[in-house]
Amino acid sequence: MPITGACFCGEVRYQVDGRLHDARSCHCSRCRKAFSSQASSYALVEPSEFRWLSGKELLTSYVGSHGFGLQFCSRCGSTLCGIFDGVVHGVTLGCVNGDPEIDIGMHIFVGSKAAWEILPDTANQYHEQGPKKA
Ligand SMILES: [Zn+2]
Ligand SMILES: [Zn+2]
Asked: What is the whole-number distance in angstroms between the Cα of residue 123 and the centre of ligand 1?
């Protein structure tokens, strides 16, 4: 079963013909704004395994200073994916359908988490950046 995802209104849909990897949650103040939440929840994809199934024309992007950006559904506002130099780099876990069989392996930048957030004790926490993988 391929992994699929969709936005809140359902117009934008994608498929990943492979596995998600390096799922992480970043609690920094920038991610709180970008994800409108207490933290990001994000996993990487192999760009060649990712494809849009519908609604690609509804996507709008916000690209930051380092070439890294996010893509949203312009109709409902869901944040669907992260892009790097215009190529899909990862997906937001909130828009993934069903169980993608991956756990959030690390919670990073918990040193700057929101005052109102209570982190579960069992989470793998890093004060700043987690261990670098790929
Ligand atoms: Zn939508
Ligand atoms: Zn962050």
From this structure: 31
